[in-house]
Write a structure and sequence with these properties.
By secondary structure, the protein is α+β, with helices and mostly antiparallel strands. It contains 13 helices and 19 strands. The strands form five sheets. Strands 8, 9, 10, 11, 12 and 13 form a six-stranded antiparallel sheet that branches. The longest helix is centred in the middle third of the chain and has 17 residues.
């Protein structure tokens, strides 16, 4: 789960991570009021979408830049009017772009230095890792590719937590002097936020040192562990479905795991590993998967019907491959659900079904006597070959 920058600022304020003052606005007049509340002449108006590269983005109305410096409440209102209700295209949104429903108006600061800082979970080390670089404000991927020696990594023991010597080490390496104490406080506050809120990533690009020796988190990107959201209803309430793929939102309501892709062969599979293997074998036979869709180990009829409806909502889909391994699941239950689902949605696309495992013979008989127009397959390779041939 992601949140907007203005929501990230709310968390910063709660945990004591220093950041410039600011307020969100949904209308130009609210932007004007926010600018008046700040009582400063140097302001920043930022488009609020779940995508990076906003400053270099272009609106489809021709206005350039999702981050704008202004010097009066009137200018803030004028800029907000050009952003709100418009579609912003950045390198991360693709050509479709994202509709801007809110902006954030913050006070501007005079920047002396910029630092990149992130905390994320390292699966290999099985612990949180601090990542920092003196190349703040730049794409960290570009820094990693061209000057990897400028990226600092510091693993944190999950039980001991962030230690004082690690903070001193980072301050020294990044050249924080005389602002080391401020940066240290920011690090401790940010790490507490990361742990207490069950984050999977917190990225600040940049952390800035101002000309009057203050340290601020100037921008923020958060990811949260979806499996831990039940412990954080206040964070779950920050979810913005408008920023997510509507198919993923619908899938989540039915307990399905869905990710849309750009191909034309839809996959309906139980188990994440099997889903990834299915996508791989489709590509190996010359096809392109249209999605990752995992119905889990105990799919019901309603879930299968929902899965078919989600799949058919993609106009690019030209065929469907169902690949089920019945370990926990009874294959015949899935077979019956497939038959009912195809009848309910009025399926006309090629459908290849491969079932294996618990009660598979009964399942095959159910499919054979269903009168549903589908193609059965005995193996994954057979299924992939048949669906690729069918869509061609």
């Amino acid at each position: 789960m992601n949140i907007h920058e203005y929501q990230a600022k709310e968390l910063f304020d709660k945990f004591g991570v220093p950041s410039p003052r600011g307020r969100a606005a949904a209308t130009p007049q609210e932007a004007y009021a926010a600018a008046q509340w700040l009582e400063v002449n140097h302001l920043v108006v930022k488009a609020q979408v779940h995508a990076g590269g906003r400053g270099k983005g272009v609106f489809k109305n021709g206005f350039k830049g999702g981050v704008q410096l202004v010097n009066s409440p009137e200018a803030a209102r004028e800029v907000a009017a050009k952003m709100l209700g418009e579609v912003l295209v950045t390198k991360q949104t693709g050509e479709a772009g994202r509709l801007v429903r809110k902006v954030m108006v913050t006070e501007s600061v005079s920047i002396e230095r910029e630092i990149y800082l992130a905390i994320l979970m390292d699966r290999e080390l099985r612990r949180p890792v601090l990542i920092a670089s003196t190349e703040g404000g730049m794409d960290i991927e570009e820094v990693a590719a061209k000057t990897p020696e400028k990226i600092i990594r510091e693993a944190v023991h999950p039980l001991a937590g962030l230690q004082a010597y690690q903070v001193r080490k980072l301050c020294d390496t990044l050249g924080f002097d005389p602002t080391a104490r401020q940066f240290g406080r920011l690090l401790h506050a940010l790490y507490k936020l990361f742990i207490d809120c069950d984050c999977s990533m917190v990225e600040i690009n940049p952390v800035v040192v101002t000309t009057d020796d203050h340290v601020y988190a100037l921008d923020a990107k958060f990811n949260f562990d979806d499996n831990a959201l039940f412990r954080h209803p206040e964070i779950a309430a920050m979810r913005d479905p408008e920023e997510e793929d509507p198919r993923e939102v619908t899938a989540a309501e039915f307990g399905l795991n869905f990710i849309g892709l750009s191909g034309n062969i839809a996959c309906l599979v139980n188990g994440a590993g099997l889903a990834m293997a299915t996508m791989d074998i489709i590509k190996s036979y010359g096809g392109e998967p249209a999605n990752f869709l995992d119905v889990g180990g105990g799919a019901t009829r309603d879930q299968v019907v929902a899965a078919f409806k989600i799949i058919l909502g993609d106009p690019n889909v030209k065929g469907i491959l169902v690949n089920i391994f019945g370990g926990i699941m009874d294959c015949d239950v899935i077979a019956s659900a497939i038959v009912e689902a195809t009848r309910e949605v009025g399926l006309t696309l090629p459908l290849v079904v491969r079932l294996e495992g618990n009660n598979v013979e009964t399942a095959r008989q159910t499919l054979a006597h269903s009168a549903v127009a589908l193609i059965t397959a005995s193996t994954m390779a057979d299924a992939a070959r048949k669906i690729v041939a069918a869509v061609k």
